[in-house]
Design brief:
Elements: H1 37-40, E1 47-52, H2 55-63, E2 71-77, E3 80-88, E4 101-104, E5 119-123, H3 133-143, E6 151-158, E7 161-170, H4 174-181, E8 187-191, E9 214-216, H5 226-237, H6 243-248, H7 253-265, E10 282-286, E11 293-297, H8 319-325, H9 328-345, H10 351-369, E12 374-376, E13 382-384, H11 387-413, E14 425-431, E15 435-436, E16 446-452, E17 459-460, E18 472-476, E19 479-480, E20 483-487, E21 490-494, E22 502-510, E23 513-514, E24 518-522, E25 528-534, E26 551-557, E27 584-587, E28 590-599, E29 607-612, E30 620-629, E31 632-640
Helix pairs in contact: 7-9, 9-11, 10-11
Length: 641
Amino acid sequence: MQPGAAKEIMFRKTGSSHYFFACLFLCASLAGFAQTSSDFFDDTKLQDIRLTVAFGDWNTLRARYMDNTYFPATFQWGDTTLQIGIRSRGRGSRSGEKPNIYLNFDKYVKKQRFLGLETANLNSNNQDPSHLHNIIAFKLFSRMGLPAPRLALARLFVNDEYFGLYNLVETIDEHFLDRNFGESDGFLYEYKPNRVFNFEWLGSDPSLYSPNLFEPQTHEDDPDPQPIVDMVSAINSSSDAQFVDAVSKYINPDLFLTHGAIESVLSEIDGMLGGVYGMNNFDFYRFQNTTLHQMIVWDKDLTFSQTQRDILSGMQDNVLARRLYAIPKYRNIYVNALVTATTSLGTKGGWADQEVDRLYALIREAATTETHKQCITDSGALYACRAAEFEAGVKDMHDFIAARPGFVLSAVLNLPPLGTVVVPKIQDVRSAAPYSASSSLAPGSLASLSGSGFASAVMEGTLPLPRQLEDVYVALDGVRVPLLMVAPDQINFQVPWETATGNLPLTVSVKGQLSDAYTVAIESVSPAIFNVSREDGSLITRDSPASPGELLIVWATGLGPVRDAMPSGEPTPPGNLGTPELPAVQVNGTEAQVAFAGLSPGWIGLYQVNVFVPSGVPSGASVPLELVAGGQTVKIDLYTR
């Protein structure tokens, strides 16, 4: 079958507040699909990682755990086996009894990737007996629309023996940047607290800032630290009248304060607003071809400890935070973020409490049977801890979640009166196609959200689709999504292909102001239909009805995975990008022959289902066509003759 004619793609607003009408034809063959990194970081199951290491190498790694020496190992996850490099990692949390382990998939096999990943981290949680501080903290950042590494709980087996329970943590690297921001050519730095630093002016020498404090993770041969110097200069030297404009060239004040507010709610004692080392535990990314930086959270194992920690703790120590908080508008923004983060965390029986219960049930056996677990004393010494400390650590989390929100909200009420912060509001999120099987969405599908306060005029994305249009972005589970269009009351977007399934938070950011989270159900398949055409692209209408035996193209979205991994926000290339299983189609209750189902080349998130109209279908204006995929049925009425 030869490709038919491509038709124009149009965006139009309908009575149901959906945009998008598209039609195109191309036939391709059926294919299977592969796992993605979202399967590796799936926190709904306990991941099993097996390492086979020479006994001498393993003993040396543990004995010299402060070294970064690599050792060869065989890595196994599910049916995948790779030859990789491993080494000890971490700063104050290193231990020879239960080392943190850095998995380097291309250390000995050049350019080798595992599900697109170059590296991953196994954290032993030596400073967290519950194993759950990091995962709940990262999830709260994601719920608030800020980027955070993915994290799953994993059992580590070394030479076929169970060694212990670990946090499996995504590395902040090019893959992370592409997944979260749709780009990775900017400058990524890991913040290293080699001295106490809270954005004070250290001088004009760039080396005082990078690599001394901001260690380059990309562009290592040309780290270009001058914008960091200029940022610190603006923070310290700009006049009060020019301060916000000067600083905003280098960092978004609203998102900076939101980051700090989340850490305050979590009672972080070693984060962005200071602690033992001043600022700590974040990466810093400068977007490509700009001077604008984004903080990325890291290492929250010392959270969930002090239920009555001051909500303004560290605010006066940090120069940027102190100067922003002195401005009424930004004081309001910080306090509003405190309230939003507290509400999102929830109290007893709320979101975080339920997550702790869910994860506890998942890991209890693995946590209570490991024999190498370490805990830390108040003085910083590590000691052997077992099941009792784990159970106590989980109870402490429940107690913190029950008490901390009330303390934060009470403290907010005791602050001087504050003004109202205007934030974008989400009313509804659904498929961009007008005929859908349910309110859920699927990875790769096209979606539309309605609400208010998004933009002053309509903005359309160009290909490849951007993750931000001017000062607007949408974050799904903390990941910025590709944007087709932003209007004052509607945003059309693509669900990123690597999105995990489950009930996920979606937020809108306008000029750094974040909406409340809206929960979106993500399923692997969630079919929705735009319309039906012939293979030449002409629509089935009253004046041009379908005939028995005729080949029709059902244009849809949400039909799930295809053979090859697809980059989010990019048009489908030519190829065999079929779905692993053909959907079932019935016309007027009669089974129809489906010739092909898969992504349509040249378009984003658009599927075509090639189907023959069965013989004996009656003529009429409301002949039902039903498409069944992933156990869900979506219906559209046809004109037939």
